């Protein structure tokens, strides 16, 4: 299958990859990223033209029909999906990529049983396994992200043992397929696919909703890896290089997300069995009802009106309440009143890396007002008031001052350093981690419990009246 | 063996290039980045094109066309959604130039 590459072909290959790299490189600047995306799409189109030109096509109608069906479906979904659904959409697309990878591996393996080299065959078998587990894992992740499946971790008895046995079985099947006689290989291929699909399912069901950013990044990496293995079956450098780049990207995002949650990859994927059945209540038997004073709201308005420096911390709760538009209206009113307003974005504020930035951009916040955690943390101490909308664990001081809670050591936004804190959350219950938020009991905190959108609306009205 | 080394080399080289390139991309753009790399992972579509360039059995054709549909879905959907997202990112004053 090795083609004799002329210098010209080599040059064309490298040009295509060069264009692709240029596209990714443009992502270093927000205002050039859109161009970067188009450049990358152009690179892949060039690659397809190149492949068609070199190899010709035997079944133009099948290709054309599949192309029309697939692209139309992709386009239709991509045009309709809302920004809050993006993580689910990306997960389902990883799934589609996984299917493509393992079906391609299967077709190549079936065709090439007699004349594939050992290396190509191993790559094909790995492509089968990784493609299939990317597919099923992504379906579970997509289901959880779109709320079609429960958010909770589903932990079976002996879950870890189960995962390990499944893994060993897949490896054994791959080895068996290498040595099996030609006629019986196909059954082993199908078994590998089924076992890998099962592996993807049991692997992902025990990962909870809040850990989805890690899972989705990880599946991004495996989708790239599967594509690279597909490339190794047919010894195509374009596939290998693109797959490797995607695998690198997914790995980086996985690492960034793990670091932001202060969890090792291992702990995300192998959660401690029997997870926080009892929330770690801090030295109190009964949860103290946060005093909801009648004049809380007036106090909050007063503070907001006199603030010069405001930081807004949005959390996923805000997005769920679809409150971002109201929150941003509030921000612009504060700006009109002369305050400086910044948004502090925790890396895991959304359901995938960078998700909150997209949600705020959709609500038309200028992106130069969006600050990363490390950038903004030193500024909290000079801030008059912090407004928190639907964020809990990411501002919980227990993460830095209490040992032994599930969030201990997690980097947080230092909201408690500000002069005043106004929390506009749905309730005063602990966040996903189950750890009481000590910020709520802080004397400088004002709780405005209720729906984030209506709280923001009331604040807007009150500020407008008194302006 | 030479082939293995070449392929492993290509993989490693682009893994490192990808790593260097992507680790400096601002977190602001991580969602569109993932969505775009997701579309790039549909490069398997090239593999299916190559598959269809030679005679295939009926089974291979069916398997291949499923792979092609899925890859096309991933490819087109990924780039379109990334484009939609990136259109949302604006900076005051600078307008929509560029």
Helix content of chain B: over 70%
Q: SSE string of chain A, helix = H, strand = E?
A: HHHHHHHHHHHEHHEHEHEHEEH
* Neighbour order of strands in the largest sheet of chain A: 3-2-1-4-5-6
Radius of gyration of chain A: 26 Å
Secondary-structure class of chain B: mainly alpha
* Largest interface, chains and sizes: A-B, 115 and 85 residues
Report what the structure shows.
The complex is a heterodimer of chains A (467) and B (98). Helices cover 58% and strands 6% of the residues of chain A. With 467 residues, chain A is mostly helical. Chain B has a domain at 27-87. In chain B, helix 2 (30-40) runs antiparallel to helix 4 (58-88). Chains A and B meet through helix 1, helix 2, helix 3, helix 4 and helix 8 of A and helix 1, helix 2, helix 3 and helix 4 of B.
Highlighted features:
heterodimer, A: 467 residues, mainly alpha, B: 98 residues, disordered C terminus
Write the layout of secondary structure elements.
The complex is a heterodimer of chains A (467) and B (98).
Chain A: H1 7-25, H2 33-55, H3 60-80, H4 86-112, H5 118-145, H6 159-179, H7 185-205, H8 212-233, H9 237-261, H10 265-269, H11 296-306, E1 309-314, H12 316-320, H13 324-336, E2 340-345, H14 355-362, E3 370-372, H15 373-376, E4 385-389, H16 398-401, E5 420-424, E6 445-447, H17 452-466
Parallel strand pairs in A: 1-2, 1-4, 2-3, 4-5, 5-6
Helix pairs in contact in A: 1-2, 1-9, 4-5, 4-8, 5-6, 5-7, 5-8, 6-7, 8-9, 13-17
Chain B: H1 2-22, H2 30-40, H3 44-51, H4 58-88
Question: Could you give a quick summary of the protein structure above?
Answer:
The complex is a heterodimer of chains A (467) and B (98). Chain A is mostly helical and 467 residues long.
């Amino acid at each position: 299958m090795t083609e004799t590459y002329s210098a010209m072909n080599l040059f064309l290959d490298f040009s295509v990859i060069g264009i692709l790299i240029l596209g990714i490189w443009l992502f270093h600047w927000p205002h050039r990223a859109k161009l970067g995306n188009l450049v990358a799409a152009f690179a892949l189109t060039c690659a397809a033209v190149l492949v068609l030109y070199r190899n010709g096509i035997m079944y133009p109608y099948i290709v054309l029909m599949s192309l029309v069906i697939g692209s139309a479906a992709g386009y239709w979904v991509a045009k309709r999906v809302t920004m809050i659904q993006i993580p689910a959409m990306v997960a389902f697309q990883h799934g589609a990529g996984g299917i493509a990878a393992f079906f391609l591996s299967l077709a190549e393996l079936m065709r090439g049983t007699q004349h594939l080299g050992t290396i190509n065959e191993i790559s094909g078998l790995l492509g089968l396994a990784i493609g299939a587990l990317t597919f099923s894992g992504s379906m579970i992740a997509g289901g959880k992200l779109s709320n079609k499946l429960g958010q909770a971790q589903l932990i079976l008895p002996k879950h870890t043992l189960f995962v390990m046995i499944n893994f060993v079985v897949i490896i054994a099947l791959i080895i068996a397929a290498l040595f099996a006689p030609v006629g019986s290989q196909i059954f082993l291929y199908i078994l590998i696919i089924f076992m890998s699909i099962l592996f993807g399912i049991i692997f992902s069901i025990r990962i909870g909703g809040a850990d989805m950013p890690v899972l989705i990044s990880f599946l991004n990496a495996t989708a790239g890896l599967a594509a690279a293995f597909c490339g190794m079956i047919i010894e195509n450098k374009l596939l290998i290089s693109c797959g490797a780049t995607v695998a690198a990207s997914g790995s980086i995002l996985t690492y960034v997300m793990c670091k932001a949650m202060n969890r090792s990859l291992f702990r995300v994927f192998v959660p401690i069995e029997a997870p926080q059945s009892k929330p770690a209540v801090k030295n109190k038997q009964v949860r103290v009802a946060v005093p909801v004073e009648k004049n809380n709201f007036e106090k909050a308005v007063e503070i907001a009106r006199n603030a010069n420096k405001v930081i807004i911390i949005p959390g996923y709760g805000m997005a769920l309440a679809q409150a971002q538009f109201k929150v941003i209206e509030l921000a612009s009113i504060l700006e009109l009143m002369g305050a400086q307003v910044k948004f502090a974005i925790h890396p895991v504020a959304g359901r995938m890396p960078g998700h909150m930035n997209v949600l705020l951009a959709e609500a038309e916040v200028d992106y130069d007002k969006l600050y990363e955690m490390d950038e903004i943390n030193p500024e909290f101490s000079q801030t008059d008031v912090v407004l928190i909308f639907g964020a809990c664990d990411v501002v919980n001081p227990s993460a830095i001052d209490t040992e032994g809670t599930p969030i201990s050591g997690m980097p947080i936004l230092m909201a408690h350093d500000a002069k005043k804190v106004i929390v506009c959350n749905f309730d005063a219950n602990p966040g996903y981690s189950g750890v009481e938020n000590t910020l709520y009991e802080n004397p400088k905190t004002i709780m405005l419990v209720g729906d984030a959108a209506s709280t923001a609306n009331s604040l807007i009205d009150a500020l407008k009246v008194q302006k | 063996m030479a082939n293995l080394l070449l392929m492993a080399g290509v993989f490693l080289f682009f893994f490192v290039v990808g790593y260097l390139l992507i680790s400096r991309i601002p977190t602001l753009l991580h969602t569109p980045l993932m969505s775009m790399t997701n579309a790039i992972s549909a490069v398997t579509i090239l593999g299916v094109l190559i598959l269809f360039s030679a005679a295939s059995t009926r089974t291979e054709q069916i398997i291949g066309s499923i792979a092609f549909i899925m890859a096309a879905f991933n490819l087109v959907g990924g780039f379109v959604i990334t484009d939609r997202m990136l259109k949302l990112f604006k900076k005051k004053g600078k307008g929509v130039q560029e």
